[in-house]
Amino acid sequence: MAPSKPRVRFAPSPTGYLHIGGARTALFNYLYARRYGGTFILRIEDTDQERSTPESVKAILDGLNWLGLDWDEGPGKEGAHGPYFQTQRLDTYRAHADQLISEGKAFRCYCTREEIAVRREVAEKENRAYRYEGTCYELKAPPAGKKLEDAVIRFRMPTGEGEVSYDDKVLGVITKPYSDLDDWVMMRADGIPLYNYGCVIDDHLMEITLVARGQEHINSTFPQLMLYKALGWTPPDFAHLPLILGPDREKLSKRKHPEADVMLHARTGIMPEALLNFVVRLGWGHGNDEVISREQMVEWFDFDGVGSTSGVWNPEKLQWLNQQWFKLLPPALVAERLTPFLEARGFQARGDARLEPLVVALRERSRTLDEMANTASIYFRTGVTLDEKAAAKHLGADSLGLLRQARERLAALPAWTVEPLDGVVKAVSEAASVGMGKVAQPLRVAITGNTTSPGIGETLLLVGREEALRRIDAALARGG
Known about the structure:
By secondary structure, this protein is mostly helical. The protein is built from 19 helices and eleven strands.
């Protein structure tokens, strides 16, 4: 049964960049909302004041925008459920905390971190799990030497036997006994909410119907469910997504894996379509389909296709997908994205009529835009550096004679297009009674500096008449 107009959210903590795992979480929520005509909400959990800088927030927004994961409500798209930054919602958290305290479901705790650490150490020595002892349960006022502002606010777990359970849309039913849950801290003394508290308040008030996030948050679900119960609220559905592992089979992390940064892939020439395609397959599948468009993702996605086992980062697979998208997307779009990579190499490529033909010529042998730009540089620079081995093999005395004949015919061509250019190679080879390769390879080495390129007619076309003749002349002069 299809859900009715789901409201889903992506709620990252800005840490300097958009993490691949976060991008996948955003994507899965986005696809679910789009498939079922719902709302995709972006909320910034910016309570870590050291790391949640304007630059870190911008990095999140830049990553989502580059991927094309547009949100319906959130920063820049204010709606009825804003504001969408947690630091702008502190009064709301305080009001609900006060309500819970008045109902005896939460309490102010004046125990210091140092005191808790000592108690925890004692528990470890006694080989038992530490649970808060209830030291501050009955306090109606701050103890001697303490002020109200010194207190954190703890959630008070029910006493006695019991368990909390939920049906995860990926993992099935998961249950935990009350005895495994502690009186957890909801708010710091400075009024900043901790994750398990802030996200529940926000999700309820923003009318979130499904929370999809990584499996590392499974244990967070149980105290959150107890908070929903204490407030008399109906919790959303939950779906916990498998981990993403690096090539070393450890959890993909900023510290160990540079590829965890979404925008690193933009800088190295991966197309957003390819990265989305790759990321969606890290935990979800549709039969044997590998190359999947955004339209197909929206049509097919649901959480019953999400697996429970971790996905492993495969750079070769990502580059293969990128090459497939070079061939699937319009050459004009690929050319537009290639242009900055050429400009970074000092070439004035914008508006150059050769860009689209270059994309068509190079997309079969390029895995990234950076790689394509490296190859394309041959066609934009003045002059070429010859590979000495290629020159020794293909620019000998006999070859130079054929190259000279080709040069004369090329200079006389009225039209510099592929068919007559290829015709010159054929005419020279037939006149000399040699294979076409005996003419094409010396031309190729003279034009590109090495023995690999697109077809010789395409290569000559892309270099251009004047530059091609100049390079041939240089090769001929080298041979004497």
